[in-house]
Each structure stands twice: as C-alpha cells, then as structure tokens.
C-alpha cells in the first residue's frame, strides 16, 4: 500500500468509525460484569441513560453510593414511534454477590411506558434506592429496557410500594420477560454500590 492510500484509509476510519465499536460497548460490559449470564442470557446492544441528582450517571459498572442513588433517576433510551416499553432496575447480588440466595431483589418495574415518558407508564414496583447490607461488598444494579409488542397487565405481580420490601426478592427479570414475551432487552446499563450510611435510612423507609 502506498502512502496516499494509507492516508485515505486512516482519514476514512477517523471520519466514519465502524458502528460495530459503539454497539459492542454494552455487550462487553455485560459480559465483563457477568450480567450475562447472571441476569439475562443475551445482552442488549444499546445503552440506557441513567442520571441521578447532581448529574451522577451509571456508566456500565462504575461505583456509586446509596446516598447518590436514593431518589429515582432520569432515564432515557432510543425509542421508536408509537411503542411501549418496560423498564426495570434489579440487583442479582442479594444478599451478596458471593452468596446470592435471594437473586434477584428488584428495585423498580414500570410497564407500558410510551416512549421514554416513565410518568405515563404503569408502575408495578415503585422505585427503591440501593441498600446493600453492611459487609456484603459491591452489588450490581442493572437497568434494562424492553420493547413491548402491546400493552401488559400483571394482576399476579400487583403494585409494590416503596414502603415495604415484601415480594421484591427471589424475583427474576428473565422470567417476567418470558411471561410477557418481551424478548431480549433493547437497552441496558449498570452501576455498582456497597453499604454507606444512607442504607439504614432506606431500611427504615421499607419498614425493616
Ligand atoms: C417512592 O415511590 C414513589 C412513587 O412511585 C416515588 O414518587 C418516590 O420518589 C419514591 N421514593 C423514594 C425515596 O424512592
């Protein structure tokens, strides 16, 4: 190859990075952090944006504190017109990653979200911050978005408030996705967190 064509190739790559690079980011992070296979069998290709108060963001496995994530974040993802979505936040590491006997403890579940307007969705499980027990190390908090084929109802699940921890543990998003034929999630993200002194306040909120 002469210098001229090498230059064209280099400039071409810089101007048009192959899209495969961008679309591998989430699958690689989900593999590295073992979200695949601990939570779901196949990773989404896109990222869901999860932004907490003060602009703190989930970044595919970074560490945040329970204090930082105590209130519901702003969440967004790429949408198609006239489409409903399901959003979940789930912790596969309950009570610890080493001994996850209550896998998963789910923190948030909203269905029938038109686009990304979560205020118009049906809340099945209200938002609960992150409350990893003291001494249990880092927990993974996984966000997933599924595209729905139609409207979902789930009387069996009912409505879980964030004033109680009942029926949150021993739950599986993959089972819920199967039950409602949601397929593979279209977007995902995760952060990790370990105990800090906000956790006792969260337990009080849950009546524990
Ligand atoms: C509890 O859930 C309600 C209703 O979904 C929500 O508005 C509120 O922000 C949640 N509170 C906390 C502390 O997560």
TrEMBL record:
Record SUPFAM superfamilies: PEBP-like
PROSITE patterns registered for this protein in UniProt: PBP
Gene3D superfamilies on file: PEBP-like (3.90.280.10)
Signal peptide interval: 1-22
Keywords: Signal
Pfam families reported for this sequence: PBP
Domain of life, source organism: Eukaryota
Regions crossing the membrane: none
CDD domains according to UniProt: PEBP_euk
Record family assignment: Belongs to the phosphatidylethanolamine-binding protein family.
Protein name (record): Phosphatidylethanolamine-binding protein
């Amino acid at each position: 190859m002469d210098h001229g064509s090498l230059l064209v190739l280099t400039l071409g790559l810089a101007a048009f990075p192959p899209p495969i690079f961008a679309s591998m980011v989430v699958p690689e992070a989900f593999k590295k952090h073992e979200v695949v296979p601990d939570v779901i069998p196949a990773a989404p290709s896109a990222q869901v944006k999860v932004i907490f108060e003060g602009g703190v963001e989930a970044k595919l496995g970074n560490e945040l504190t329970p204090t930082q994530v105590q209130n519901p974040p702003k969440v967004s993802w790429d949408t198609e017109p006239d489409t409903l979505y399901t959003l979940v936040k789930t912790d596969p590491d309950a009570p610890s990653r080493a001994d996850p006997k209550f896998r998963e403890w789910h923190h948030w579940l909203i269905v029938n979200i038109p686009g990304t307007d979560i205020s118009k969705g049906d809340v099945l499980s209200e938002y609960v911050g992150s409350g990893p027990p003291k001494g249990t190390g880092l927990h993974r908090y996984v966000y997933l978005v599924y595209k729905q084929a139609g409207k979902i109802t789930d009387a069996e699940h009912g409505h879980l408030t964030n004033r109680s921890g009942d029926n949150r543990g021993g739950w599986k998003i993959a089972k819920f996705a199967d039950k409602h034929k949601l397929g593979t999630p279209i977007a995902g993200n995760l952060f990790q967190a370990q105990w800090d002194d906000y956790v006792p306040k969260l337990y009080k909120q849950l009546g524990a």
